Amino acid sequence: MKLYYSPTSPYVRKVVACAIIRGLDSRIERHVTNPHESPDELLADNPLSKVPCLVTDDGLSLFGSQLICEYLDSVGDELQLFPAQGAPRWRALKFQSLGDGILDAAVPWRGEQAKPREDARDRQMVRYQDVIARTVNALERDPPHKIVDIGSITVACALGYLDFRFASQPWRPEHPKLAAWYEAFARNKGMADTVPQ
């Protein structure tokens, strides 16, 4: 398999963490890619020019961390990260949505910070901050479980991204339950081996 990736992308981190946890990391050839430059090789496999993009062994191009993680969960015999049914499935998918929601606000917020200030941009940045604050507050009230699944992996990647890109605005002091969960969960090999640098 071939993975187009950017080392600091939290969406890529989610995919790589899932691959490590599923014992598939050694089967994936990584290609560092800057999607903002739209390199021809990436465009040939992903017209959206985004990472992560996984090309399977049989040549199928998959893009988007949710889809790639679900595909990886179908390969091999390791513990399933996407529970098959019932409350465990819906809880895992709920936390995946919460984690992805943090990332969907944090990544563009980070991008907006580098641009010149103007009223419309400032209002949008406040909106991103509010989304993140509300979601982290919800996670404090109901932290993910200790089970390793797609929901807990996604939330951990989102919180790790906040630590990495927004260290001057720490989330931990006002969220002790969530911080304790994260500290324990971050020791998982898939998380520990993918800390952004």
Structural class based on helices, strands and sheet pairing: alpha+beta
Q: Reading side by side through the largest sheet, how are the strands ordered?
A: 2-1-3-4
Q: What order do the SSEs take from the amino end to the carboxyl end, as H and E?
A: EHEHEEHHHHHH
Please give the share of residues in helix.
Answer: 40-55%
What characterizes the major β-sheet? 4 strands, mixed
DSSP strand (E) fraction? 5-15%
Q: What's the tally of helices? A: 8
Distance between the termini: 24 Å
Strand tally is 4
Overall 3D shape: globular
Average residue pLDDT: 95
Cα radius of gyration in angstroms: 17 Å
Uncertain stretches of 5 or more adjacent residues: none
Explain what the structure shows.
The chain is of the alpha+beta class and 197 residues long. The protein has eight helices and four strands. It has helices spanning 10-21, 40-45, 65-73, 86-113, 119-141, 150-165, 176-185, 189-192, and strands spanning 2-5, 29-32, 53-55, 61-63. A four-stranded mixed beta sheet has the order 2-1-3-4, covered by helices on one side. Strand 3 (53-55) and strand 4 form a beta hairpin. Helix 1 packs across helix 6 (150-165), helix 4 packs antiparallel against helix 5 and helix 4 packs parallel to helix 6 (150-165). The longest helix is centred in the middle third of the chain and has 28 residues, at 86-113. It is globular and about 45 Å long.
